[in-house]
Write a structure and sequence with these properties.
The complex is a heterotrimer of chains A (about 100), B (about 325) and C (about 400). Chain A is mainly beta. Chain A has a domain of about 55 residues: Alpha-Beta Plaits. Chain A is built from two helices and four strands, in the order βαββαβ. In chain A, a hairpin with a 6-residue loop joins β2 and β3. Chain B has an eight-stranded mixed β-sheet with strand order 2-1-3-4-8-7-9-10, with helices on both faces. Chain B has a two-stranded antiparallel sheet with strand order 5-6. Chain C has about 400 residues and is α/β, with parallel strands linked by helices. In chain C, the strands form three sheets. A seven-stranded mixed β-sheet of chain C has the order 3-2-4-5-7-6-13, sandwiched between helices. In chain C, α6 links the parallel β6 and β7. In chain C, α1 crosses α2, α1 runs parallel beside α6 and α7 crosses α8. The longest helix of chain C is centred in the middle third of the chain and has 30 residues. Chain C is globular. Classes of the chains: A mainly beta (about 100), B alpha/beta (about 325), C alpha/beta (about 400). Chains A and C meet through loops of A and β9 and α8 of C.
Chain lengths: ~100, ~325, ~400
């Protein structure tokens, strides 16, 4: 029977001092926390970058030279800061369909 | 050199740091966390060629569940109250190893990062010791979300007057937190260190330039960063940046710098009513007009004090 | 050239830290440890030791700074006593699991209350389970030698654990003894430069001090215990190589007149020398007595203990710490557990003495030898000389 919490690494296989690799949380996709997703209306976008600057999860990528920012939905938790801060209301938080 | 004259490469919209964030995604901060936003911007401004030291707290827990780490620079966490002391040891080790030919030749800033509890309460002694010792490459950043959020929203000495927390609850005999917020930037400045600054993630370029200036200046620097917490403040997830803007425009969180004891403040001539700031946060919902008036008076008096300092001791 | 001089033992420890070319010292004054770090700050101030001396504002910050310094790849030393070690407690438990090879000299002193600055072992016993290698010195020469050995063992890549070197406060730390101070070239033959197993490096970043959830915690603690147990082999090798270089042989368990002894006293630290004098006098009267002393307390050298005392009829275990609410002192309890499943075992009794600086005399040991031989089945520790 599998216990609710089982060990994942053998004693002898643990790294010395339990060191972790830099930036390795990228393996953990926080996108599934999301119930709403940001949808961008590129027509309204003025490429101000607020969505990119203000995203706590760093999900926006500069799509230059196309002059807009794109959300990486693997990590987007759906907080809605980007939509709230967008001066042109170009981003709409849209319900995820299950 | 005067702290105000120390050159550093300014962050602007045009030369915003490119490349991946120094704080990787996949961290477990709450939706809409203003603290992790401030952290992401701070680290973005610094790149990866520095050493980060975390105190135990929200940012440490959400960025480092073994075997994963969100930090792309060398990072160490030891405990809650000692980020300043750990950073002192790292800073001195880096200096000695460079001197003895076993380290890198470049300057390596050491940046300690702690929450308000880890700074204003349990970590104050270690911080005071580190500031007093005049470490050359030492920067301390307090990410202030105004309570012990990681343990479930308990009050700290940085919790503002009137805030409802799980240990300053509102009741028949209580209006929430009964003490005024401890003035950490003033305490840091009293150590006579070359640089103290306040910042918020809403004013992101200002925040990034202040941390760049902090690492450029030789000698200890202290940054007090406002870190809106939707979870702890009972606020909608999309309002972290909005609340930070309001904290500045209401004068609740004045943006200022102290350079060698000389003050520079971003003035707010026509403040937004504090009620506007309070109404988006559940933690202040119980306050009445009289309470808000008393708080406004206190807020203005601290704001006026800093303005007065900036006039008497201008940069 | 090595030179033999009269020097206070605390200063000799500081001289060893200098000979080790230590990089960082973070320390806070506390009696009776203070002379060690005072002398180190002088050595740094006069340029004879190229190290950073961090004058921290507490012992908690001392060990915190040491953790940071060690993690950054620097050879790191601090010293403390008693309340200072108690204040460090939280950090003391963190250092072994993060595998930071810090060397800590403890001038052993009683814990409050009542406040008392004099010698016993209650400070180290309060952190005996933290995962540090614990060595005990008996005299001045050993204090210096074991400081060098501590660095060598701590930094061995097979170990990478912190080491505490225990020397009795005042009764050892403040005595002036003739001590041979080795020269740097000879020390360099024994102690290689510190090459850390990992470090905070901007060119090869890593994260140290991560959260270990229920899926990892047990294994993390066990990995540290495995490393601590495995360190015994490295310690013995270091002792042997120290002998090759310096001509002084140390053992994890030291015996004096114990081979044919019917009654053996087992002790730690400087009182062993008093016990040896008592043994000489009792031997002259034809009594078959001996003394075994633990130089290594953690990891507990079980096989060597059994070999050294297993043949005795009676074993009197000395504790210099009173565990309130327990049947025996910490050393007493462990000796009983070592022999619990043995088919042939000594009659073990446990004596507590020398608390808070109370003098321990040859007569105390004569009493203990007699008492241990006379009684069977002791059910609780006995405090020697307590006024009840």
């Amino acid at each position: 029977m599998k216990k609710p919490i089982d060990a994942l690494v053998k004693v002898g296989d643990l790294p010395l001092g339990l060191c972790g690799a830099p930036g390795s949380t990228v393996a953990f996709k926080t996108g599934d926390w999301r119930s709403v997703r940001p949808v961008l209306d590129k027509e309204k976008c003025i490429y101000c970058g607020f969505c990119y600057y203000y995203c706590p999860d760093g999900v926006y990528q500069d799509m230059a030279p196309e002059k807009y920012y794109k959300a990486d939905l693997d990590y987007c938790k759906g907080c809605g800061i980007c939509a709230h801060e967008c001066p042109k209301k170009a981003i709409t938080m849209t319900l995820e369909e299950v | 050199m005067r702290a105000a004259d120390v050159p550093f490469e300014k962050v602007t919209a045009k030369n915003f740091p490119k490349g991946p964030d120094s704080l990787a995604p996949g961290h477990r901060a709450c939706q809409g966390c203003g603290e992790v936003l401030a952290l992401r911007l701070l680290l973005k401004a610094l790149g990866t060629e520095f050493i980060a030291v975390s105190a135990t707290g929200c940012m440490e827990v959400c960025t480092g569940p073994f075997p994963q780490s969100a930090w792309r620079m060398p990072w160490v966490h030891i405990a809650f109250e000692n980020a300043a002391a750990v950073a002192s040891g790292v800073e001195q080790a880096v200096h000695v190893l460079r001197r003895k030919g076993r380290g890198h030749q470049q300057r390596i800033p050491v940046v300690a990062i702690a929450g308000d509890g880890g700074t204003a309460d349990i970590g104050l002694q270690a911080l005071s010791g580190a500031l007093e010792r005049q470490h050359v490459d030492f920067v301390y950043v307090c990410l202030d979300n105004e309570a012990y959020m990681n343990t479930g929203i308990q009050r700290s000495s940085a919790t503002p007057f009137g805030a409802n927390t799980t240990t300053s609850p509102v009741g028949v005999k209580s209006k929430g937190q009964y003490t005024w917020k401890k003035n950490m930037p003033a305490i840091a400045a009293a150590h006579g260190i070359p640089y103290v600054a306040t910042a918020t993630p809403a004013n992101y370029l200002d925040l990034m330039n202040k941390i760049r200036r902090a690492v450029a200046i030789e000698g200890p620097a202290y940054m007090h960063v406002y870190a809106p917490c939707p979870t702890g403040w009972r606020m909608k997830a999309e309002l972290a940046v909005e609340s930070a803007k309001l904290a500045v425009s209401t004068r609740i969180f004045p943006l200022y710098e102290v350079l060698d004891g000389h003050y520079a403040i971003r003035k707010v001539d026509k403040p937004t009513p504090i009620a506007d700031y309070f109404k988006i946060q559940g933690r202040f919902r119980h306050l009445n007009a009289e309470d808000i008036e008393a708080i406004t008076k206190k807020v203005n008096s601290e704001y006026d004090r800093i303005v007065s300092l900036s006039e008497t001791f201008p940069v | 050239m090595a030179k033999r001089i009269g020097i206070e033992v605390s200063l000799a420890v500081a001289e060893a830290v200098k000979l080790a070319d230590t990089d960082v010292i973070a320390a806070y004054p506390i009696t009776p440890q203070t002379h060690i770090v005072e002398h180190l700050s002088e050595l740094v101030a006069d340029g004879s030791l190229d190290a950073a001396y961090i004058p921290v504002e507490s012992e908690h910050s001392a060990m915190s700074s040491c953790l940071g310094s060690s993690a950054a790849g620097a050879r790191t030393f601090t010293a403390t006593s008693s309340q200072g070690l108690a204040l460090m407690n939280e950090m003391i438990y963190i250092a072994p699991v993060l595998r930071t090879p810090i060397v800590l000299a403890i001038a052993n002193r009683a814990l409050s209350a009542p406040i008392n600055i004099w010698n016993d072992h209650s400070d180290i016993m309060s952190v005996r389970d933290a995962g540090w290698i614990c060595l005990f010195a008996e005299n001045g020469q050993e204090s210096l030698d074991l400081t060098l050995i501590s660095f060598r063992v701590a930094e061995d890549p097979k170990v990478s654990l912190p080491v505490s070197l225990n020397l009795d406060g005042f009764t050892l730390s403040h005595f002036i003894e003739p001590i041979e101070i080795p020269d740097k070239e000879t020390v360099d033959k024994f102690l290689p430069p510190f090459v850390p197993c990992f470090k905070l490096d901007i060119k090869a970043p890593m994260s140290l001090g991560l959260l270990g959830g229920p899926e990892y915690y047990t294994e993390s603690r066990k990995a540290t215990d495995d490393a601590l147990l495995a360190s015994k082999t490295v310690i013995k090798k270091a002792f042997a190589e120290f002998n090759d270089v310096f001509g002084r042989q140390y053992n994890v368990v030291e015996s004096y007149q114990a081979k044919d002894a019917e009654t053996i006293v087992l002790a730690m630290g400087s009182i062993s020398e008093t016990a040896m004098t008592a043994v000489d006098e009792l031997r002259a009267q034809g009594k078959k007595v001996g003394i075994v002393r633990l130089r290594l307390w953690r990891p507990l050298p079980i096989e060597e203990i059994v070999e050294a005392v297993g043949h005795a009829k009676n074993l009197a275990v000395i504790d210099r710490h009173l565990v309130l609410g327990a049947p025996y002192g910490p050393v007493g309890l462990e000796m009983m557990s070592v022999f619990y499943s043995a088919s042939q075992k000594p009659n073990i009794s446990n004596f507590v003495l020398g608390l808070g600086g109370r003098d321990v005399t040859r007569d105390d040991f004569k009493y203990i030898f007699d008492r241990a031989a006379a009684q069977q089945g002791q059910t609780r520790y006995e405090i020697v000389g307590v006024l009840e």
